[in-house]
Amino acid sequence: MDQDKNAAVLIISDLHANWEALEAVAADAEGRYQRIFCLGDLVGYGADPNRVVEWARAHTAAIVRGNHDKACTGLDSTEGYNPVARISTEWTSRQLTVENFDYLQRLPRGPLPVEGFGPSFDLAHGSPLDEDQYLIAPEDAAPLRAYLETRLTFIGHTHVQGGFLLARGGTRQIDPAGTLELEPDHFYLINPGSVGQPRDEDPRAAYVIYTPEARTIEYRRVRYDVETAARKILGAGLPRALAARLFEGV
Ligand code: ZN
Asked: Which of 8, 15, 153, 191 is the most exposed place for a label (fewest CB within 10 A)?
């Protein structure tokens, strides 16, 4: 069998310094992809910022920055952040090694084009037009159709797995159940969900596998050791809410 035909990429987003979740995703996806691409927010909220950043430095082919990567390295103020997010940002800044701080500070802004895996596709954290914008409802995504340069853009930021299909007749939310077949006439904004802090009422870590030749997106969820991740958050003196929400996926 031609190996290229099965070439696939692993897309992850919003790791949020959750080592246990990242480890589970890496194990679950092992052997099923050639490259890893990441949509940002490596840090913030979780208790293992250095370990997660070091893993990303060693294993990912490309990453765009997220708002937490910016805030934790002083590129963005925490003014719009709630107290819990602000406390975790300040804690993370203090924990990061010089090398990891530097790496996060230099991450590129999305959208970032990826070539070499079928038709080129884009990586973005929030919207492809504004890295900090949340694309939550179809109304948020619909106006983007006129501006998209590629048929396929991967987005994160909301921590909700799924994304949007932008067709001529309208825009709809994608139900992230199993495998999605991409149709050539549409534009897609695909959200892999969050590895380290899911907010779609499913506490399992989320990711997708994209297979360009087959034109498929496989939505995946994997259980991980939430207890350990939560215990580390409490042990670090971070707000209890950050530990509690991991059990609920909210
Ligand atoms: Zn995030």
From this structure: 8
